[in-house]
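Team,

Forwarding the record for the chain on the shared tracking sheet. I've put the sequence and predicted structure together so nobody has to dig through attachments.
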Amino acid sequence: MSTVVKITGETLEQDVLHSSMPVLLDLWAPWCAPCRSLAPNLEKLAVLSVGTLKVAKLDVEQYPDAMANFNVRGIPTLLLFKDGKEVSREVGVKTLDQLTKWMTGNGIVLERPPVLRADTPKYPAFYGDPELKKFLFSRLEQQALEGLVQASPHPFWIEGKGTLAAAMVHNADIEVFERISGIPAAVGHALDFVQASSPETIRSLSLALTVGTDLSRVPALVIYDYLKEPTFDWPGLLAVAADADALRCAWLKECKKHLQGDPVDEAAMDEIKRRAESLQQHPDRAIQRLAKVLLELSPMPGCNQHDEWAAVFRLAGDLSFSVGQHQCGWTAEDRDMERRRFYWFSEREAQTATGKASPEELTALRAQWLEENGEYQAKEARFIENNLQGLHGVHSATRAHLIAALKQAPQLLRI
């Protein structure tokens, strides 16, 4: 039974605005993939906050007035209420760790989940059972043939469709994936990161996964090879910031030590983190995204820290857009166009009589933008058509990295 309370337009005032305890309200919709990805973490937060916080959700597709009433433009949006007044909000997918830090920072008392050693896998792959692997992958391949396995940067499972890890166990909760398959949750995030959905790719993954193996190093190997991939032309992509590629190389050096079992230079990792923090506000999105990835990776998460790996692979997925654009010949100016387009429309909308463009005015503005920026619009259309064909090369490379990492996994020896 769900521990998250479903709110309606009729119960909003009583259950949220007049609640005797703080309320975390999730504004979501069934069609929103990030909302579906966030849901399992909200369920876990609700368990950790019994008696101190009410976790609730409101479907804005059924109650669209809520978006305007709370001045919300995008979902998922999380609103924290105390004594009927909003005291804080966050937008977008959050890991359980981010949610708990946000809540405790606002005075919400939570229970703490048990802490496991971060560098030790809990189980051998498929618990050492070949029949379990055969069943899960046979079903998964059949689902892929029926088009039920779908590539998405946000893990989900809804109405019999979902991303690879969720489709394997028919559940979007990554901990359920781990318990059923015996594969570390962090590896589940890696499976979704590579955007695998075709029967052929799923067969390749199945052949690479050996029953009874220790998969603890797989996430680190995947992200190491991703940030080292020569065909991505990292130096060219990152050239707009003098320090960015050197920072990437410094992290690769320390990660290589980690993968070889050698001591990592903690002072060097601290310096990487400091330099990454300084690049977070760089105007170029590729630089921002790399900085955020390296911040999550400094220090390297252990294989059981799946919240941290969820953040790593989500941010790496964002970075892949910049990589794909660069591979398709986009310049730094092209990559900045989305930001400039937003401000272009915002400035002109503010100049209208009401401060908000009417449908007719918006149509005229779009026509003007297209006329002035036709070349960019054509480039963007080529990139996104055919299921984001501009990213196909990136995903092909990351799938190869994952398959190679799975093949390297040794047998898990229990002492």
